[in-house]
Amino acid sequence: MRVVTWNINSVRLRLPRALELLAAVKPDVLCLQETKALADQFPAADFAEAGYPHQAVAGMKGYNGVAILSRRPIELTEQRDFCGKTDARHVAARVDGGVEVHNFYVPSGGDVPDPAKNEKFAHKLDFLAEMRDWLGANRASTDPMVLVGDLNIAPLDTDVWSHKQLLDVVSHTPVEVEALGVLQGGLGWVDAVRAIIPPEQTLFSWWSYRARDWEASNRGRRLDHVWVTEPLVAKVADASILKAARGWEKASDHVPVIVDLNL
DNA sequence: ATGGTTGAGGTTCAA
Which pTM was predicted? Predict the structure, then answer.
């Protein structure tokens, strides 16, 4: 089973790029974040025509929004609101009666990495804590699950262009990295991408729109992740990041992350 | 210390 996660930053604007991605990479499951579309604005028919008729979509006006698109039948298992907000940051589905896929869009967290001064950062930390509490209480690490999404945190030193210069920059601060570690390791999740691509190797999935030349400056971060539970760890066959997508015309600032599982 | 760019929706906010 090939799973792809991509923060598409507007599914309506970038629909042609998504259809090209599906044709080229042929995933079984595509998880999108930042679709920025209400459910009735989501281009469901276009994806169905492209071979992905099985869909679980959560959307809101203008912001956020997540979707799971599948070649094979899926069953919606959860579409949860976190932190008491109906802001379309999570959807989960079981694929073909087997693996459950959780698709998350974690809050970005604003600019100031202090929850007392910045309510967006407080929201981000609360969201991570609630993810941990809810998954811990409602799911078992012995169940075959995949967790993907734009988690808006680059945990490793090699997940950012400069560990030292980003220690105080939201996405790489110790408090966030710690919270992500508690969620991941504490609940038995394993980073499928880093199981294939060694942690020593620098790896990014996002490059800012604000650079004059994203490729030349290469100030990226790995914000997009694919995790699996223990029953799937030995089945992770391959992982890659489609860096070329950042150079596409009308590119998203994030690129697709691809993981293959031998199920 | 600040700015740089993009997207949605509506003359600004979020990333």
Answer: 0.97
Could you tell me the distance in Å between the CA of residue A120 and the C1' of nucleotide B13?
13
Mean confidence (pLDDT) of chain A: 97
Q: Calculate mean pLDDT across residues A129-149.
A: 98
Residue nearest to nucleotide B4 (CA to C1'): A210
Q: Is the CB of A24 under 7 A from strand B?
A: no
Per-residue pLDDT tens digits for A3-21: 999 999 999 999 999 999 9
How many Cα atoms sit within 13 Å of A177 on the Cβ side?
Answer: 18
Q: What is the largest CA-CA distance in chain A?
A: 48
pLDDT of residue A91: 98
* pLDDT reported for residue A240: 98
Q: φ, ψ for residue A8 (rounded to 5)? A: -85, -15
Q: Which residues 101-140 of A interface with strand B at a CB distance below 7 A?
A: 107-108, 110, 120
Comparing CA positions, the residue from A23, A69, A27, A33 lying closest to residue A239 is A27
Contact A211, A225 (CB under 8 A): no
Give the per-residue pLDDT at A252.
98
Q: Which residue ranges form the domains of chain A, and what is each CATH number? A: 2-261 (3.60.10.10)
Q: How far apart are CA A142 and CA A147, in angstroms?
A: 14
Asked if A183 and A189 touch (Cβ cutoff 8 Å), the reply is yes
Q: Are A242 and A156 in contact (CB under 8 A)?
A: no
Tell me: the pLDDT tens digits for A205-256?
A: 999 999 999 999 999 999 999 999 999 999 999 999 999 999 999 999 999 9
